[in-house]
């Protein structure tokens, strides 16, 4: 049985089918590590580092990440419901943390006020996610469902929303210069202008 110890460093290791529900971990560094079919739901990672790591088919729902650093991390087919990413450590000199989420469930997450330029969200379910006051410029948010997600004073310049649906973005409250939208879904942007659309 693989174990994760506080204060240790793990490099180029693969962790498979670990079940560490509600576990508490402190000061651990992971670099170039792969996590497959692991259950970290409710886990508490404090002052840890995940650098160039990959998560596949993992459950990370309600994970807590106080002062934990994420750089160059990709998540594929993972469940990340209710994660408050604002508690993590995001160095001001890294505008692009190279985070990638593909076919993930990110419902009820918070990215409030974060600068995560060039963020990748692909085929993700993003219901009731808080993107307010963040800078996500030059990101790719394609084929996603943004039902009830919140955008306000958000920098969405040059964001690619192609094939994404159910977003509610007020064009007067957000920066959307050079953003890309699918033609039909772009009509929803007009609702914030208090105008009447006719056929």
UniProtKB/TrEMBL annotation:
InterPro entries associated with the record: 5peptide_repeat, PA_immunity-related
Superkingdom = Bacteria
Segments crossing the lipid bilayer = none
List the signal peptide residues: none
Entry's Gene3D superfamilies? E3 ubiquitin-protein ligase SopA
This chain's protein is named Pentapeptide repeat-containing protein
State the organism named in the record: Oceanisphaera ostreae
